[in-house]
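Consortium newsletter contribution from the modelling node. Members have asked for a concrete example of what our holo predictions look like. Here is one, prepared for the magnesium ion complex that several groups have been discussing at recent meetings.
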Amino acid sequence: MTKQPPAKAIPERFIVRPATLWFDRFMNYFITVGGLSIIIAVSLIFVFILLQVLPLFRGAQVEPQDSFSVPQDDYVVMGTDEWAELPFFVNRRGELTFLDTVDPGGPHHRTAFTRAPAWLDETDVGVVVYNPLLSQLVYGTADGRFAILDVQYEATFPERGGREVSVELQETPLLSIGSTEVPVQHLAYGSSGTQAIVVVIQQVNERFEMHAVSLVQQRTLLGDGQWSVSQSYDLSEHLDAAPRHLLVPSDADAVLIGMDDGRVLFLHFDGQEFRKRQMFVPFRDRADRAIASMNFLLGDVSLVFTASCGANRIFSLYRDPQREVRVWGHTKTFPDLERGASFYSAAMRNKAFLIGDGRAASLRYGTTESIRWQDELPFSVSLAAIGPRYDRMLFLDDGHTLHSYRLDDPHPQASWRTFFGRIQYEGQAAPEFAWQSTGGRDDFERKLSLIPLIIGTLKGTFYAMIFALPIALLAAIYTSQFLRPGIKRFVKPVMEIMASLPSVVLGFLAALWLAPIISNAVPSVLLAVIAIVVAALVVGYLWGLLPQRIRVRLKPGYEFLAFVPVLLLVGYAGWQLGFVVERTFFIVPGESTGMQIADFRLWFPQATGLSFEQRNAFVVGFVMGFAVIPIIFTITEDALSNVPEAFRSGSLALGASRWQTAIRIVLPTASAGIFSAIMIGLGRAVGETMIVVMATGNTPVTEFNPFTGMRTLSANIAVELPEAPYLGTLYRTLFLGALVLFLMTFLVNTIAEILRQRLREKYRAVE
Amino acid sequence: MNDKRDSTFAASRGSGEIRQKRVQVGQRQKQTGNDAHARYIQVRDHSFFYGTTQVLYDLNMDIPERHVTALIGPSGCGKSTLLRNFNRMNDLIDGISHRGDILIDGRSIYDPYLEVISLRKRIGMVFQKSNPFPKSIYENIVYSLRVAGRNRRAELDETVERSLRAAALWDEVKDRLRETAFSLSGGQMQRLCIARAIANRPEILLMDEPCSALDPVATGKIEDLIHQLKEEYTIIIVTHNMQQAARVSDRTAFLYMGRLIEYNDTEKIFTNPTEEQTEAYVSGRFG
Ligand SMILES: Nc1ncnc2c1ncn2[C@@H]1O[C@H](COP(=O)(O)OP(=O)(O)OP(=O)(O)O)[C@@H](O)[C@H]1O
Ligand SMILES: [Mg+2]
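And here is the predicted structure:
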């Protein structure tokens, strides 16, 4: 239609088919999109892990929620049900006032109601203490008796939804203790279910008397029966100063008395007798040693002290290695409060405690010495309590208003120190890195240090690599540079099959077959290895000394035919010699018989003070080496074989030997590839899970002893993730471990890649 | 699909002392007479096989000392194979075999008691494609000294300068000896390889189409070089360039399909060849 001269038709043979162009473009996009999605996927994994981890490092969120007015009175104890819906207050006279915080004026038409033990009209109350864990009030009366009052909360879940909390009181009759008709000044009570003791202090004519009773519970057909006194003790002789604080742990095996002069007396009760075990001064180094407050932390093996000057310390029970008994020692120091504490409440789910004086309140965490929350309140606090679910804090101010604060602190234990620092846990004599995420008891202190796991990871990798690296690299050099191509064609695929062995199988073999063999014959294994290495060197040297007449008989590339039998023989000799060596040198006296026993497994711990486990790093290194060798070998072999032939012939033509050619020309030229091979092997070893899980005892240790096991980051995740409550502290900590692993490999790979690029640049072959 | 990564002379590695001496005794003999001089390298009924394929058929030729001998012939006729046999570089290839013998200075290179490494030290080789090592210019040249354990700084420096001057490269690279050899141009690299080949002062220099990738200027330089080197070295050169063969060589051998068709003084070959095939090949009517 246009006037243009018709373009000369392009001959068909020059025309590109549209499909070819289309496919080319499509593949272009496809590959770009593929590459990008991989990058995005990896980044998303990183972001996901990060999101799982970040909440660990958030502090506690606290905000005021509600306030209620409480009938005017002088309250000394505050307690609450699980949801803080029906808290109660006990006044000096011993009466309980319950406050309904859910529906004041609701269907029950009650805001507050009062209850009292029946015996109250009989006698007055001297002292009341409350044990929130047992939900028990213990009264000491003005006439030298005591009684226990169970505050039994019950929650029902009606069909219309919601929750209704009701309460019932159950009281024991009054039992006599100490001097009759003398008011009880201090009282402490502890019950472990099988053993219970009550300790009271009374003042008789200016002199302090301390009496204790142990209680037994009569079992009846209808269940738990009445407590009755089984034995009485007079402990007055121990009181050499005015007592101010009195505590009995829930195990009912001790009495702790804080004296006016700042000393703390620790009496131990073995079920029969009270014996003085320790006297200590928590604030020995302070000018004012007076103890303002002394309370247990959850579990009753840590004591939280404050001094009148405001100093705040924790003492914990630990095993004194000299005396072989448990004593109290200073373990934690917190930032000073302004003054000694006037209110205190320990959390019932973890090691947090709420402490303060007047308007200043502080929520602290015992294990980590950290302050979770701290604030100046708009009122002056007289009583405080942490909700049993650790989701609420209640403060009763001196104007008789109850303030309820919402507490959102899902991971109170998390801190840098928990994960990466040394912490002196309860029961330990010194700060240490430890991982122990679960224990038998609710009040168990979780140990979440990642350091043992990082060390375990490095340890496993280290032993795998010192075994795998020399073998894989030398094998690759030998195969690519010295071996006949005919044999090489057979060696490589075999190695590749080895690489595809599932690590479960390797782990299984390691755990059930190899570990017992090796642990039975450690000296033999070591000697066999040494013998083979030495023999290889010696045979190689002697071979060079042989007359050429004999040497030319063996065709080049087949030298291994002469070599392998010798090595096998020497290896076997080393193995046998190992038993002789064990019989000669590794002798220990038997524990029970006193006879001399030759056993390396017993000798090693005695000689070095380190322990010996059957499933140890030695075995893991050996077996993980098997997983890593084929990888390093194949990649290295490829790298070496890809060195241009021209380099090799150039070197050989100049009169270099095969070994010189391999070392001086081939290795440097292939160094970038070999480096990659090592790094990929390293990556495999770092991330390897199954072998470690199966072939070690998964003990988190912090030593490089080859004869103990380890727990690696990856194995830890595999072992613990199924047990970790979703989004809990442990769950997130496992993700933190994953993040550390991720960063470790990322760091190693990045450094490796930079070095590799440099090497490649340096030995780039011109084509 | 031969994997050339294999080597065959490990059997003769080590303990070379005595044998090297024997070879050296052999070297001296060349001075004894004119006859020995003209028959410095003797190829005797030499046949060569790659596996079962025969590529050289009963070759016989005497190569004189300190002359340039050119090997010419159409592609695939076996020139490189013959050249690589002189220093037993073909040993690297799997499944080779040979018949007949090659003697250098009266001594067989296939003698099982001969140290191949020492043979190769005695025979320098320049490859068709330049193959400098991924090292500095300096290290490339001193490589043959270093593998022999000679690391004295003065000797190395002296060798580098002498070799580079001999290869007409000194002036171009004397200020950049520590730079990587890959920074050189193609022609410079080829001359570097020549310098490297003569660093250890071999007696024989094998050159496989050394100028095939070079421009006329670089080619000219290398031809001048060959002229100079012949004062000191026995040179065997493979070339496809008839003018080059005519220019640089004293004797020329014409190979065709693995057979030696004609071997004579270069002048004779190019002006008045005996054989019809030679005539056709050198005049460009065939090939
Ligand atoms: N490694 C080898 N294995 C098997 N056959 C080979 C091998 N190298 C060369 N040949 C064969 O041997 C014959 C001679 O090869 P050679 O390389 O000696 O030829 P040439 O004369 O140098 O040729 P050109 O001038 O092209 O370099 C050829 O037919 C070739 O295919
Ligand atoms: Mg050739």
